[in-house]
Amino acid sequence: MSITPPNIILHAADVHKNFGGLRALSDIDLQVEEGKTHAIIGPNGAGKSTLLNVIIGRIPPSSGAVIFDGTVLTGKAPYEINQLGISRVFQTPEIFPDLPVLHNVMAPAFARRDGAFRVNMLRSVGSEHEIREEAEAILDDIGLHGRREHHAGSLSRGDKRRLELAMCLIQRPRLLLLDEPTAGMSRHDTNTTIELLRKIKSSGMTKVIIEHDMHVVFSLADRISVLAQGRIIASGLPQEIKEDPRVQEAYLGGGVE
Amino acid sequence: MFSLSRKDLVALAVFSVVVLTMPIWLAPLGASYPGLMQKFAIYAIFAIGFNILFGLTGYLSFGHAAFLGVGSYTTVWAFKLLSMDVLPAMVFAVIVSGVFALVIGYFSLRRTGIYFSILTLAFAQMSYSLAYSVLTPITNGETGLLLARNDPRYLDAIFGAQADVAGLPQPTLIGNSVSGYTGFYLCAVILILAFYLSQKIFASPFGMALRGIKSNQTRMNYTGFNTRPYTLAAFVISGMFAGLAGALLSITDPLAGAERMKWTESGNVVLMTILGGVGTLFGPVIGAWLIKYFENIFSAINTNMLNNAFSFLPDGVQGFVVTVLSKFVGEGWQLTLGLMFVLIVVFLPGGLVEGFHRFMARLRRRKEAPERVSSTQPAE
């Protein structure tokens, strides 16, 4: 098999996934370079979400393995994968609806600092000034600082998505997985989110992003892989993908713009 | 490390005053005798502990009476084997019920939702049946575990305490008898400590993680929290609170019977917590007091007392009122409690504490409203 070059942080090697008789993923070989934003695009049902779920350990691959920075992720529990430095934004935002917005952002910071389990009953959340300041700064960035005391369940859908992104960012992950981060957002919200993702792009965080919206993909991605019927049919720089006739046939329907 | 936020500190101060002045404010309610006030304190501890599991993590245990029973039995055994002093008895009761909770929790917490509840219920009923049958050498079956004059009490024997007292030995706290008001104040102080501990847990990152599990377990896992040890820790802590409550039951009345493990007892603590307010600090305490008050005072009201209370009414009306009301008091106290429970769950899902918050919010609004009117008038 292919040898992983040193600057490849995530490598899905020879991954297959069958659901009963259905081949959801076949021969997947995906390499993500450190510090880059790697977009995975493809028509509905191409297997994009399945691939993401295999990477994050939500579903095990039928064969093959996912390697993150020299560690095999396959078979690890979601919390272990997160502790290695991988955070994920879901397609439908997974937040803590019953907790205040501020605590939504602080909780992941505790997981980063204290590890997967720690009984610290004698400390108090109120006296954790460092984490609180960090959380407030991030809430300021995403424009939710004014609503930090509200219950997260009361936020609008777009705000929930941004909150979830903030919950991932406070963990300072080495790899951030985004599953259609702008789906269902208004144009304005989409542009704000792109701006936010651009801002963190410069911080050297690696990102894998699944997206339908070509505007989002071409404004963010350094590399693009195209998935169709469970296979990667093309991989390369945005310009190459745009001009690839196979991609145009399979997905873009003959024209990009 | 032991500090509280200002808001919690005020709550603790208010709570302490309320608990310690029970003999005063319960007097007009006819409940100011030590035996009942002890029960108020003990069941409040039980409910506070239960709330740490149910209120914070959302895992509904239907078997917490098992830990109450284990605490009771352990205490009586500590009295029999070690010493009549209550301190070692309480320490052992907490440890043993904690170990018990660790085992039951380890298996039960492999499932969530209704399956978790059923597993805890199964374990508790198993303990209850065992206490009646196979474990009779330890639990003394139906008779219940009692003290005897000729128990070894090795620790007391070493120190030569209580060697030749007439009758059954009584529990002591460093040499002082814990009957009557001393017993109540012992329970009251432990209740205040339990309340303080629950405040610390509520305010800690640990408590925040438990709330996160209740709110969204998936997000907790993908955020890097290993949720199982968190829920197990909450389960063990609440089991220890229950064990401590069981110990106090045996301290104030030194015998232990299997009926303390019965499922109705487990159900009672669920009712207490829901009635008062799940996941709130004061809720479980209020719920526990209310239910114990109904059980002991309301159930003692009889037709004669009702006749006296309504003697100012004309004869026919008096007879009618008394006949109707008598269905709700005395033996019918559970009817009143049941109706109250239904009304609260339907109209105040957050329990009495939520009702109180709504009431305060309405008062505040009413107070603000006139000011607004006066400030808009000059503009007109």
UniProtKB/TrEMBL annotation, chain A:
Bilayer-crossing regions: none
Any one cellular-component term (Gene Ontology): plasma membrane
Pfam families associated with the record: ABC_tran, BCA_ABC_TP_C
Residue ranges constituting the ABC transporter domain according to the UniProt record: 10-254
Organism: Pseudaminobacter salicylatoxidans
Name of protein: Amino acid/amide ABC transporter ATP-binding protein 1 (HAAT family)
GO molecular function: ATP binding; ATP hydrolysis activity
Keywords annotated in UniProt: ATP-binding, Nucleotide-binding, Transport
UniProtKB/TrEMBL annotation, chain B:
Main subcellular location: membrane
Localization: Cell membrane
Record's keyword terms, sorted: Cell membrane, Membrane, Transmembrane, Transmembrane helix
Cellular compartments per GO CC: plasma membrane
Transmembrane segments: 12-33, 40-67, 87-107, 114-135, 178-198, 229-249, 269-291, 312-329, 335-356
Annotated InterPro entries: ABC_transp_permease (IPR001851), LivM-like (IPR043428)
GO MF annotation: an example: branched-chain amino acid transmembrane transporter activity
Membrane topology, as annotated: Multi-pass membrane protein
Superkingdom, natural source: Bacteria
The keyword Ribosomal protein is annotated on this UniProt entry: no
Record flagged with keyword Membrane: yes
The protein's name: Amino acid/amide ABC transporter membrane protein 2 (HAAT family)
Organism field: Pseudaminobacter salicylatoxidans
